[in-house]
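step 3/5: co-fold with FE2/S2 (inorganic) cluster
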Amino acid sequence: MSGNGSNPMRPFIGRLAGIRDVATGIRLFQVEMAETEGQAAAAGYRPGQFAFLSAFGAGEAPFGLASGRGPYLEFAVSALGHVTHTLHGLEVGDPVGVRGPLGNWFPMEEIKGRNVVILGGGIGGAPLRPVIHTILDNRDDYGHLTILWAARSPDLLVFTDEFDEWRAAPDTEFHVTVDRGDENWSGNVGLITQLLEQVAPQIDNTVTITCGPPIMIHFAFLTQQKLGFTPQQMLTTLEARMHCGIGKCGRCNMGEKFVCIDGPVFWQYEIKEFLEGFL
Ligand SMILES: Cc1cc2nc3c(=O)[nH]c(=O)nc-3n(C[C@H](O)[C@H](O)[C@H](O)COP(=O)(O)OP(=O)(O)OC[C@H]3O[C@@H](n4cnc5c(N)ncnc54)[C@H](O)[C@@H]3O)c2cc1C
Ligand code: FES
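step 4/5: write tokens
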């Protein structure tokens, strides 16, 4: 389901049910869908999909869905430009538009029974949150879970309020690192790729899921290959410039693939020749 009624470009109407800061400059918006059709679309959401969130009068922008366990569609939005700054100025109760969920999703069914290594960099952790929740809420369906979480600085780490739960979860290890610490930081300092080499997760029967800035994805893939992971074991999700989100405008193309409809989730072997174009 992509849009309202017969027009896939027309958003469903929603209402902001909750807003909270999840890192410096990053705000989590909880959206309650107002219309029956929008509620049905939201209920069909799968981890890895994205949606356009609009602030009326300002325009719309695509965001990976960061939905938690509650009834709302959730978006972690970094304030960068016009639309995102306008969204940051909204208040609980304000109307918003939602076009989506759109795109493909992480193959959570197909990877059942396998170990999962998650690498989240900065706001790239947002679409990985529903993956983590899916695994923790169906713990017996998956093997060992390794979560590597990173940000440029401690104040940019997202979802810190969930770290205790992730650390304490059965058959789960959680590691966090920052590029630069501050006076209150006593944890790891260094790149997520260095942390990955230290942790050296098991290769057999393991799938990796990486999300972050393109440069991080590039080097995370190289490190994973160095450790022995094959392209068939490495998943990621890409952020391309988008306009329509439904395969019509050609704005997001990557060779013959469109990030909006063939992705945003890809295996490494599907995108390796195009990844450098994103750096
Ligand atoms: C599938 C997908 C998932 C995304 N998920 C998230 C998310 O979870 N949270 C989040 O905060 N952002 C996410 N983004 C990026 C988000 O769409 C942009 O930040 C947003 O469009 C900026 O809109 P703006 O009008 O505020 O800024 P603009 O004025 O349009 O741009 C502000 C700055 O951001 C740059 N920019 C805009 N769009 C992109 C893009 N797609 N990739 C790289 N740089 C861009 C511009 O070049 C400019 O420098 C995602 C994008 C895609 C395609
Ligand atoms: S955004 Fe229009 S084709 Fe992908």
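step 5/5: annotate
The chain has two domains: 12-102, 115-278.
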